[in-house]
Design a protein that fits this description.
Elements (H helix, E strand, L loop, with lengths): L6 H13 L3 H13 L1 H23 L2 H7 L1 H31 L20 H10 L2 H10 L9 H36 L1 H23 L4
């Protein structure tokens, strides 16, 4: 139906994969907590565009090429691991700065903190999405299994729409949840430093996981 093989199994797997923590969701949550709902959706848009690129590449056969070519897959995964490590180190440096200034009393704010000029949540989320180990393995090893050979175009579109719909619902929940944390982070530098440190450590974990990934 709709060019899809075993739709219930795909939906069950999709829910489990979407709910697993990954760099995409963690980054969107972090942006929403620091900068508010609008910035959170800006980051989420980068994730959705990145996932669309990965879906398109999968439909074009690039996923099969990566699966068959160990050298090419190695280049992609180590480049992604390096980028995630760079992001993690930036988070840890920011957390250290927050910790050193934790006793300072910040000025009262009623709005989310403005985004640093160099951050660019959309672009950063787009790159994170393209090198997301969970997404790469999903589109290489899982996604293509449910496309019917009799109608592959409709199958890819159907699976892609369902994946994006699940992502929109999940990231929206994270964005609104993260925005509630923003006020607490602004009032408590220790809490903000601890959360940023935890995010940095998790990103290091994602980098290690990606570097060890295989197909």
């Amino acid at each position: 139906m709709f060019g899809v093989i075993d739709l219930p199994t795909y939906l069950a797997g999709l829910v489990l994969i979407v709910l697993l923590p990954g760099p995409n969701s963690l980054y969107v949550l972090s942006v929403a907590a620091r900068q508010g709902i609008r910035a959170g959706y800006t980051a989420a848009a980068g994730v959705w565009c990145g996932d669309t690129v990965l879906m398109t590449l999968s439909a074009a056969g690039v996923a099969s090429l990566l699966k068959a070519n160990a050298v090419l897959f190695g280049i992609v995964k180590y480049a992604g691991a390096g980028y995630l490590t760079w992001l993690a180190m930036g988070m840890l440096r920011a957390a250290w700065t927050m910790w050193r200034t934790r006793k300072e009393q910040p000025a009262e704010r009623t709005a989310p903190v403005a985004a640093p000029a160099q951050e660019r949540p959309y672009r950063r989320a787009l790159v994170i999405s393209l090198f997301n180990p969970k997404a790469i393995l999903f589109f290489i090893a899982f996604f293509v299994q449910f496309v019917s050979e009799s109608n592959p175009i409709v199958g890819f579109v159907t699976l892609g729409v369902l994946a994006q719909l699940a992502s929109v619902l999940y990231l929206s929940a994270l964005i609104f949840g993260g925005s509630r944390l923003a006020a607490a982070f602004r009032r408590r530098r220790r809490l903000s430093a601890g959360a940023t440190s935890a995010a940095g450590v998790l990103f290091l974990g994602f980098a290690v996981k990606l570097s060890l990934a295989s197909v």
